[in-house]
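thought: fold this chain, then report.
action: predict
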Amino acid sequence: MTFRRLFDFFRLSSVALLVAGALCPALHAQAPDKTLLALGPLPDAPSPFVEAAPPVVLTPSNLGVEHRFLDNQNRVLFIAAAALNGADFAVTRANLQSGGQELNPLVRMFGRSTAGLAANFAGETLGSIGLSYFFHKTGHHKLERAVSLVNIGGSAGAVSFGLANR
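observation:
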């Protein structure tokens, strides 16, 4: 599609939108009906105006039960994430030493040395824990657990792929 045809399409679309908006009576119905206001208040008739509701104040007793950051469930998730990241490091290192290549472009730049590869997987583990802590502090407790679960799933997938393609 050439630029000229695209320009004509957008111009025609905008004209059609403006005409439809001008002719649409629902767009003009945002104000109170003046005939109802002229009659005065009717008995048992709803007011055409909406009153604001009072604000809802949540006290700490209304909020969900807060848990400690290093509770049993998070400990298990962090240990599993660290173990699977360690397994991912070992499988990746073994594959790289036997002539394989790293498929993840972010990890590829660290994969030239064992120390760089170890630093990458340690940073991945610590980053996962740090992001979980951030979500814990901001009150997003489901996301706090989901970060570890995604990290575990990614590492488990990488380990199984690395072992299957030796």
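thought: worth noting. The mean pLDDT is 83.
final: tokens above.
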